[in-house]
Write a structure and sequence with these properties.
This protein is of the alpha/beta class. It has helices at 15-28, 36-40, 47-55, 60-81, 88-97, 110-119, 143-152, 166-175, 189-192, and strands at residues 2-5, 12-13, 83-84, 101-105, 128-130, 159-163, 178-182, 199-201. The protein has two domains: 2-13 and 83-209, HAD superfamily/HAD-like (Rossmann fold, 3-Layer(aba) Sandwich), CATH 3.40.50; 15-81, DNA polymerase, domain 1 (Orthogonal Bundle). The strands form two sheets. A six-stranded parallel beta sheet has the order 5-4-1-6-7-8, with helices on both faces. Helix 6 (110-119) links the parallel strand 4 and strand 5. The protein is globular and about 50 Å long.
């Protein structure tokens, strides 16, 4: 099986870093800061969509500037704010022992994810990372997930995507793969059922006991 994961709120929590970088970008644009809770709800969206969600403005030029400021600050501070959940490593180790192919498909830049994987000794547990800078269209568009599937050499029928948000759920549905939701993010259980997931778990630590081949 190919088990593909979202990153933020699925394998790790970097929400405080996202809050810091989003408000830094808003400061740089001369705009009002937003509450932490409001920013955390945007995690998983592209930075352009994050800007629109936070400001209500649909201005491509300003959204692009927001993205530049966010990413520039993220290079300095984001790694310090990434914390893997306690259950993440045991879950990935169990999946590896079962010889599953493991990928990460996220809107976060691949470089940020790989820095965290290297820092906390996860590199050998992950076969591929497709980050937001690797694709032209971020989730819920399935481009990143389809790229991971192609790299795995396994068909969509042997792929499952694990994530915490409606965007992840829709991405899996549009790619034609099974979706498993986890409740470690800000999305309510009822919302995760919108695209008919195979199951919804409390966290990825429960995956080791799940029948991943069930469709």
């Amino acid at each position: 099986m190919h088990v593909s994961f979202d990153f933020d709120y699925t394998l790790a929590d970097s929400s405080e870093g996202t809050v810091v970088c989003a408000n830094y970008a808003l400061d740089a644009l001369g705009m009002d800061r937003r509450r932490s809770a409001d920013i955390k709800k945007t995690i998983g969206l592209s930075l352009e969509r994050t800007f629109t969600a936070l400001t209500g403005k649909d201005d491509a030029e300003t959204a692009a500037a927001f993205k530049r400021y966010f990413l520039a600050h993220a290079e300095q501070v984001m790694l310090d704010h990434i914390r893997f959940y306690d259950h993440t490593k045991p879950a990935l180790q169990a999946l590896k022992r079962q010889r599953h192919y493991i990928s990460i498909v996220s809107t976060k830049l691949r470089e940020r994810i790989e820095e965290a994987l290297d820092r906390d000794d996860y590199v050998e547990l992950i076969d591929a990372v497709v980050g937001g800078g690797c694709v032209a269209r971020n989730k819920p568009d399935p481009e990143g997930l389809l790229r991971a599937i192609q790299g795995s050499g396994l068909p969509v029928t042997q792929t499952v995507y694990v994530g915490d948000s409606v965007s992840d759920d829709e991405c899996a549905s549009r790619a034609g793969v099974a979706f498993i939701g986890v409740l470690t993010g800000t999305t309510a259980p009822a919302e995760l059922h919108r695209w008919n997931p195979a199951r919804v778990l409390d966290h990825v630590g429960e995956l080791a006991a799940s029948d991943l081949s069930a469709r």
